[in-house]
Amino acid sequence: MAVRYWPEMEVMHRPAAASPPSSQVEVGSRGRTAGRTTSQGMESGPRAREGIETAKGAAASVRLRPVRSFVLREGRLTAGQGRAFHQLWPQFGLDWGPGTAIELDRLFGNPRPVVLEIGFGNGESLAEMAERDPGRNWLGVEVHRPGIGHLLLEIERRALRNLRVMRRDATEVLAEGIAPAALDAVQLFFPDPWPKRRHHKRRLLNPHLLPILGRAIRPGGTFHAATDWEPYAQEMLEMLEAASDLFDNAAGQGRFAPRPALRPLTKFERRGERLGHRVRDLVFRRR
Ligand SMILES: C[S@@+](CC[C@H](N)C(=O)[O-])C[C@H]1O[C@@H](n2cnc3c(N)ncnc32)[C@H](O)[C@@H]1O
User: Fold this and answer.
1) How far apart are alpha carbons 265 and 52 in whole angstroms?
2) What pTM was estimated for this model as a whole?
3) Dihedral, 42, 46, 51, 53 alpha carbons, nearest 10
4) Nearest C-alpha neighbor of 176 from the set 49, 22, 1
5) 176 CA distance to ligand 1 centroid (A)?
6) Is the CB of 70 under 6 A from ligand 1?
7) CA distances from 10 to 1, 131, 209, 240 (A)
8) How far, rounded to the nearest angstrom, does the alpha carbon of residue 200 sit from its chain's CA centroid?
9) Where would I find the H helices in the chain?
10) Is 28 exposed, middle or buried (CB count within 10 Å of its CB: 0-12, 13-18, 19+)?
11) Among residues 2, 31, 92, 140, which is most buried (max CB within 10 A)?
C-alpha cells in the first residue's frame, strides 16, 4: 500500500513549447508561485514570476507533485565541501532510494540505538551531539548540499565513526526507509517556520508526519523538536498532544520542555536569539 506522507499535492503546469525542458512552472493551490525543478523533482533557483505568464499563455500538460517542506537552492560548494563529497561521501554518505529498507546495524557496523536528525543545516550541532554520545549511532538527513559537505568535513575533523549522512527528503526516509520501531529518537531543530499562511502546508511537522514518526520510533523512544517561531511551537504542541495514542508530553500536559543541556546551540537558533525570539523545546515520548 502506498504511504501518503505529504499533506497536499500541488498542480504543476508544464508549458508545451514555450520554455526549455528543464524549467517547470509551478502553480500553487492559488496559482501564485513559480519555480524550477532539478532532475530529482526538487525545486531550485529563484521563483520566476514570468513563468506564470508562460503557463497561462501556452497549452500546458498538468501533473501533481507533493508539497515539500523545502525549496532546494543548490548553493555553491566550497573547495573543501567539494572534496568532502568526493572523498568522504563513499564512507559516511548513504545513497538510498524509496522502497528499500535501510539496514541500520549494517550501516553503522553495530546494533547500537540510532538517533535520526531531520534537516541538520550545517550539521555542527549534530556532529557535536554524536561526538558527546558515542554509545548511540546518529543519522543526519538533509537536502542542502553545502550543509551536507560541511557536516562531512566535521565528521572528518572530529574523527567520528558513529555518524552517517543522507541527502534525501527526510519524510520519505522515515516513511519508506526505516523499519518499524527502529529508531531510539528523532530530532527536528529549527525547521523552516513557513510563516505565511499560504505556506503553512509546507511545514515539516504536520498531522501526516505523526503516524510516520510513531511508526519509526521505538516505544519509550523520543521525538525532540525545537523552534524559535512561537506560533509554530504552539501548533506543534497542540498537534503532538492530540496524537495521545502515539506520544506523551515528557514535560507534562500543555508544557514546553526545559532546554535539554545536551542540545548544542544551532546556527538557526543563534539567528533566532539575535532577533530576540524565544526558543521552545518539545520532548515527546513514544507510548
Ligand atoms: C531553518 S534550517 C535549520 C537547520 C538546523 N537544524 C539549525 O537549527 O541550524 C531547516 C533545514 O531543514 C532542511 N529541510 C527542510 N525540509 C527537509 C526535509 N524534508 N528533509 C530534509 N531536510 C529538510 C533545510 O534544507 C534546512 O537546512
Assistant:
1) 41
2) 0.84
3) 140
4) 1
5) 19
6) yes
7) 22, 40, 18, 26
8) 15
9) 49-57, 79-87, 89-92, 104-108, 124-132, 145-158, 170-172, 209-216, 230-242, 267-274
10) middle
11) 140
Positive or negative, the CA dihedral 138, 144, 150, 153 is: positive
Neighbours of 240 (CB within 10 A): 21
Set of cell numbers at residue 152: 562531512
Cα 236 from chain centre? 15
Residue 10 has pLDDT above 90, yes or no: no
pLDDT digits (tens, 9 = 90+) for 73-131: 778 999 999 999 999 999 999 999 998 999 999 999 999 999 999 999 999 999 999 99
Length of the chain in terms of residues written: 287
Give domain limits for the chain.
9-66, 79-286
Question: Rounded to an integer, what distance in angstroms lies between the CA atom of residue 69 and that of residue 232?
Answer: 14
Of 105, 169, 192, 228, the active-site residue reads 192
- The CA 246 to ligand 1 mean position distance, Å, reads 24
Cβ-proximal residues to 1 (8 Å cutoff; 6+ apart), any chain: none
One-letter amino acid of 13: H
Examine the residue annotation and report whether 192 is marked as an active-site residue of this protein.
yes
Instruction: Read off the C-alpha cell for 114.
Output: 540510532
- Closest ligand 1 atom to residue 226 Cα is 8
Residue 142 CA to residue 148 CA, distance in Å, equals 7
For ligand 1, the distance from its centroid to the CA atom of residue 142, given in whole angstroms, is: 6
Q: Which helix (H) or strand (E) holds 92?
A: helix 89-92
d(C-alpha 156, C-alpha 225), whole Å: 27
CATH number assigned to the domain covering 79-286: 3.40.50.150
What's CA 48's distance to the chain center, in Å? 25
Tell me, what's the pLDDT at 72?
A: 82
Q: Is 51 in the pocket of ligand 1 (CB under 6 A)?
A: no
